[in-house]
UniProtKB/TrEMBL annotation:
Keyword annotations of the record: Membrane, Transmembrane, Transmembrane helix
Lineage: Eukaryota, Fungi, Dikarya, Basidiomycota, Agaricomycotina
Pfam name, any one: CCDC47
PANTHER family: ADIPOCYTE-SPECIFIC PROTEIN 4-RELATED, PAT COMPLEX SUBUNIT CCDC47
Membrane topology qualifier: Single-pass membrane protein
Organism: Fomitopsis schrenkii (Brown rot fungus)
Official protein name in the record: DUF1682-domain-containing protein
Subcellular location: Membrane
Annotated Gene Ontology cellular component terms: endoplasmic reticulum; membrane
Residue stretches of biased makeup (Basic and acidic residues): 323-368
GO biological process terms on file: endoplasmic reticulum calcium ion homeostasis
Transmembrane segments: 40-57
Coiled-coil features, chain-numbered ranges: none
Keyword Membrane: yes
Length: 382
């Protein structure tokens, strides 16, 4: 059996007969006859293709991210005292994700800029995404950049109200609802002042009225109506809630308010197209916080809302916090009950292990009878 297996695994001997009349290369004791290589050229070509595809995709992503960042860097430098990390460059995580952290500005604690690009360097993922896009009509993968402004504690406590509001591109509605729990607070409605491709998600119309009206040098509806800008716009949102539903009420020290701008990353040839949107985001931050040159929101957005709107926002959050607290307590009770039952089972197993075989059998029979009686009682109750 072993000899037959070895014969099957042993490759056929190389034909080095003198009758070979094809191309031959010799170097010292090495002889290469290309005619004998039938599948190897395809393997080598596939490996070379993978390597070339990897470096092409890696370089393409680098160019796109760096071009956008360098184009917008002067704006960041004019807004922040520390526009980039101490190293002076983007933080890289693989070949499709980059990050930047900016700080040192009024009304804003920090700005996190996140780039998420298609895996152009990974042929298998590229093929998977392409194939999935053909099967699932609502599946869309794009190069994206997100700017997450975190309001400073002073602005968040005095000028920025507890509310959730957003302007969303309609083709992003399905995906954004699945990844943004906070936007489930809102109702969707179209605004005549915005392009038909956009919709507003707001808890109350009062918030929308104040944010879409001209605010000094800022006219958000005009910026969003520019076709050159609109094709890269995905969403802009103001929120006081986390993106994912918390498992327990958040302590006050962990509660933060954000303005989040989501864009499709433009190609290198059009990197400056999103500058007006980013500039508008800075102006909107100042308007909401009651800072800067933007007028019309003196005292910030919180001062402009009607008292009944503020009361409704506050009441809804109190109810929500109570629900989350009750959920957390219920889950805690269930976990404690599971631990108690597990400890009881373990103690019973330890007790049975110390008994003789006959006593163990009697104990198991008693347990079976007890289980049967419980089942009969349940059936009668039905």
């Amino acid at each position: 059996m072993a000899s037959a297996l070895l014969q099957f695994l042993t490759p056929a001997p190389v034909n080095l007969s003198p009758d070979y009349d094809g191309t031959e290369y010799r170097w010292k004791f090495i002889t290469i006859r290309p005619a004998f290589f039938k599948n190897e050229p395809y393997f080598v070509a596939a490996i070379l293709f993978f390597v070339i595809f990897y470096f092409w995709g890696k370089r393409a992503n680098e160019r796109r991210v760096n071009k956008w960042f360098l184009t917008h860097l002067p704006l960041l430098e004019s807004q922040f005292s520390r526009p980039v990390p101490p190293g002076g460059s983007l933080i890289r995580d693989g070949n499709s994700d980059w990050f930047n952290y900016s700080t040192g500005r009024r009304a804003v604690s920090s700005l996190h800029t996140t780039f998420t690009l298609r895996p152009r360097h990974d042929l298998l993922q590229w093929v998977y995404q392409f194939g999935r896009g053909l099967v699932e009509l609502d599946y869309k993968v794009t190069d994206a950049v997100e700017l997450d402004f975190t309001f400073s504690p002073s602005a968040a406590s005095s000028s920025v109200p507890d509310c959730v509001w957003a302007v969303i591109a309609k083709d992003e509605m399905r995906s954004i609802r699945s990844r943004r729990w906070d936007l489930t607070f809102t109702k969707t409605n179209d605004q005549p002042s915005l392009p038909p491709a956009l919709t507003v998600m707001s808890e109350f119309a009062d918030v929308t009225t104040n944010l879409l009206k001209p605010l000094g040098t800022l006219d958000l509806t005009r910026v969003l109506s520019d076709p050159a800008v609109l094709k890269y716009f995905r969403s802009i949102s103001v929120t006081d809630q986390p993106r994912a539903r918390p498992s327990a009420p958040l302590p006050q020290s962990q509660r933060k308010k954000h303005l989040i701008l989501e864009l499709s990353l433009p190609p290198t040839s059009d990197a400056a197209a999103t500058l007006p949107l980013v500039q508008a985001a800075f102006q909107l931050v100042d308007a909401i916080a009651g800072e800067g040159k933007a007028t019309g929101l003196r005292g910030g957005l919180a001062a402009q809302l009607r008292p009944e709107t503020k009361n409704k926002l506050k009441k809804y959050r109190e109810v929500l916090e109570k629900e989350i607290s009750e959920e957390a307590k219920r889950e805690q009770r269930e976990e404690e009950e599971e631990k108690r039952l597990a400890a009881k089972r373990k103690a019973e197993e330890e007790r049975l292990s110390k008994l003789s075989a006959a006593e163990q059998k009697k104990a198991m029979d008693r347990e079976k009878k007890r289980a049967m009686r419980k089942n009969q009682t349940r059936m009668k109750a039905r």
